[in-house]
Specification:
Layout (H helix, E strand, L loop, with lengths): L12 H28 L4 H9 L18 H14 L1 H20 L2 H13 L4 E4 L15 E4 L5 E11 L6 E7 L11 E7 L14 E2 L14 E11 L8 H4 L3 H37 L1 E2 L2 E2 L4 H29 L5 H25 L10 H8 L2 H4 L4 H15 L3
Parallel strand pairs: 1-4
Antiparallel strand pairs: 2-3, 3-7, 4-5, 6-7, 8-9
Helix pairs in contact: 1-3, 3-4, 3-7, 3-8, 4-5, 4-7, 7-8, 7-9, 8-9, 9-10, 9-12
The structure holds flavin-adenine dinucleotide (FAD).
Flavin-adenine dinucleotide binds next to strand 1, strand 3, helix 11 and helix 12.
């Protein structure tokens, strides 16, 4: 049973209906099955199939391409509910959402018409790839290259790392160095839309030269695969440069950073979702478990923990929605998206740890849901820019906005 903590919901009718629908889906389909897929570390195919039927792969894709055409704010509410169920489920749609954003904002008409209808139904899923074995935070340091051949196609070479949905995706939006001499380096980077065969470890035919090594073994965030990608002579046609060659070559870094802004709102919503679930588990357990002759919830020290969790969570939810609303209104929200990501991911981790403490020894048992949350939550401190990187973004933007 979900426990409502937010009295001031401030949702439109559509937002309320859709979040209620996703909340019910999480209660009935995700939460009861998450333990099984987490323990097996297997892809939750039946849940993903139902998400396709609910249209959740096309939430932000315009109706003309078969999606729901909803805004980032509504998407963030949906992600919060999915993550309350299990953050791996939101991971299945997260990179897909970033890929659709890149297409909608920068894609050519041909690229939109070719990819978006298939992405709206979930027929193909998208991955998003910046990181490499030696590079994460410092994106300008990537080494993978794209070289234009005499036949006009681009040859991609290099190794990518930590690609969420790296195996099951049918398309990867990948950042490559197209001009190694560019100074500063970001001006020589291009985003390529690389198609592949979903679930194929070695691609053949037109997709040859893109191989997926075995998935990385992780402490949490199981079920959704994280992989390396090896580009070894992969041929990418010129019409698969994001935005087309004329507009897109050399623009990849700027396009990807723009997408990370919405990605950060998305991760913030995941932090709120996992924190909300941790709070619900703590509220329930603390009223069931007795020590010294009364439920532990009657001890003030436990009440303080619940109060801090709920208070911080509410603040994180509000900042997340504010960042989403600003982006929807067409305002710059880099500062707010950074704040939302920082606050909400740290709050998610805080709530999970406090809930874990409230569970006492049972929190350490795999039979209790909080054990999974404890392994899942730290990812949010890392993905889409670490907390240190968010602080750097926030500090830099503050100084830019308040320059004397
Ligand atoms: C499960 C998982 C899924 C992921 N999915 C994707 C994906 O789909 N696509 C993708 O492209 N990437 C993905 N990533 C990669 C992720 O974005 C990076 O791990 C993250 O950006 C951090 O990079 P790094 O791991 O190389 O750490 P590093 O950049 O090496 O940083 C190491 C430490 O140094 C700190 N640090 C770095 N620079 C500074 C600085 N200037 N000042 C202060 N501190 C600093 C960092 O905060 C961190 O604490 C995923 C990662 C994980 C774990």
């Amino acid at each position: 049973m979900a426990v409502e903590t937010a009295a001031y919901a401030e949702q439109t009718d559509i937002q309320r209906d859709i979040t209620e629908m996703v909340r019910q889906f999480a209660d009935e389909q995700i939460i009861p099955n998450a333990e099984k897929y987490d323990h097996e570390d297997s892809f939750p195919e039946p849940i993903v199939e139902q998400m396709k039927e609910l249209g959740l792969f096309g939430v932000t894709i315009p109706e003309e391409y078969g999606g729901m055409g909803l805004d980032l704010t509504t998407y963030a509410m949906i992600v919060e509910e999915l993550s309350r169920g299990w953050i791996s489920i939101s991971g299945v749609v997260n990179t897909h959402f970033i890929g659709s954003y890149l297409l909608m904002k920068f894609g050519t008409e041909e690229q939109k018409e070719y990819f978006l209808p298939k992405m709206a139904t979930g027929e193909i899923r998208a991955a998003f790839s910046l990181s490499e074995p030696e590079v994460g935070s410092d994106v300008q340091g990537i080494k993978a290259t794209a070289k234009k051949g005499e036949d006009g196609a681009w040859e991609l070479n290099g190794q990518k790392m930590w690609v969420t949905n790296g195996l099951g995706s049918g398309v990867v939006f990948v950042l490559m160095k197209s001009d190694p001499k560019a100074d500063p380096p970001y001006k020589g980077m291009t985003c390529f839309i690389t198609e592949k065969e979903p679930w194929a470890e070695e691609n053949e035919g037109e997709f040859a030269g893109l191989n997926v090594p075995p998935k990385i073994k992780k402490m949490g965030y199981k079920g959704v695969e994280s992989t390396e990608l090896v580009y070894d002579g992969y041929r990418c046609p010129p019409e698969r440069v994001l935005g087309g060659e004329e507009a897109g070559v050399g623009q990849g870094f700027i396009q990807m950073m723009d997408a990370l802004e919405v990605g950060r709102v998305n991760v913030a919503a995941r932090g709120v979702g996992i924190g909300q679930r941790a709070l619900e588990l703590a509220l329930r357990y603390s009223q069931e478990r007795k020590t010294f002759g009364k439920p532990i919830a009657a001890h003030q020290a436990i009440q303080f923990k619940l109060a801090d969790m709920a208070t911080r969570l509410e603040a994180a939810r509000l900042v997340t929605r504010k960042a989403a609303r600003m982006k929807d209104a067409g305002e710059r929200s880099d500062l707010e998206a950074g704040m939302a990501k920082l606050l909400a991911s740290e709050t998610g981790k805080f709530c999970v740890e406090e809930s874990f403490r409230i569970h006492g020894g049972y929190g350490y048992s795999k039979e209790y849901e909080i054990e999974r949350l404890y392994r899942d939550a730290p990812l949010l401190l890392i993905g889409e820019g670490t907390s240190e990187i968010q602080r750097m973004v926030i500090g830099k933007k503050l100084l830019q906005r308040h320059k004397i």
